[in-house]
Amino acid sequence: MGMDFVVDIEAKTVSITKEFLARIDLVWDAYTKPELLDQWWAPKPFASRTKVLNFEVGGRRFYAMVGPDGAERWAVQRYTSITPKTNFKFFNAFADADENLQLPGSDWDFNFTDQGDTTKVSVSIYNESLERMERILESGFTEGTEAQLKNLEDLLAILSASKGAA
Question: What is d(CA 132, CA 104) in angstroms, rounded to the nearest whole number?
Fold first, then answer.
C-alpha cells in the first residue's frame, strides 16, 4: 500500500499518510510498545534500540538508531498527548547518549483511523526551524521513512498472520 509524503516548506511541516493491512489494535501496539517499535522503527541496515519508553502524557521514549558499524544516534520523544487507539503526539529532538537535547526539535502528531481490516495512519511533523527540516530532508528522511514504513508493513503482516492462527 502506497505512502503519501507531502512537504510544506512555508508551514515547516511534513505530512505522511499510509494505510496498513492490519487492524487498528495491532497498528497502535506497533507504534507504542518498545518490543515492537524496535523491530521496525529504523530503516535497514540500522537498528532501533529503546533504552526507556514510558508511554503516558509526560513520559518519553529515549532510543538510539544504531548503524551497522555500531555508531549510535540518540533521540528523545516526549509524549504530550495520548487518546488511546486514535491519536498521540510527541516532541522529538536528537540528543546525546546522556539525553541532553539538541534543539530545535519537531512536534509529531499521529492519527489512527480504523477502517475495518485496514488502518490509516496520518502523521504531521512540524519543525521548529526551517533549517532543521531542510537538513533532515537532505539527509534522506523521505527514503528512510519509506523504508521504515515498509518494515512496519512486513511486521504487521507477520503479526496479523500469527494472531489469526492463534
Answer: 7
Query: What are the DSSP calls for 57-101, one per residue?
Result: TT-EEEEEEE-TTS-EEEEEEEEEEEETTTEEEEEEEEE-TT--E
Residue 7 to residue 45: CA distance in whole angstroms: 25
> End-to-end alpha-carbon separation of the chain, Å?
26
pLDDT, tens only, 55-79: 999 999 999 999 999 999 999 999 9
Cis peptide before 68 (omega within 30 of 0): no
Residue carrying C-alpha cell 488502518 = 119
pTM: 0.94
Q: Assign 3-state DSSP to the chain and report helix, strand, coil percentages, each to 5.
A: 30, 45, 25
Number of Cβ atoms within 10 Å of the Cβ of 56 = 8
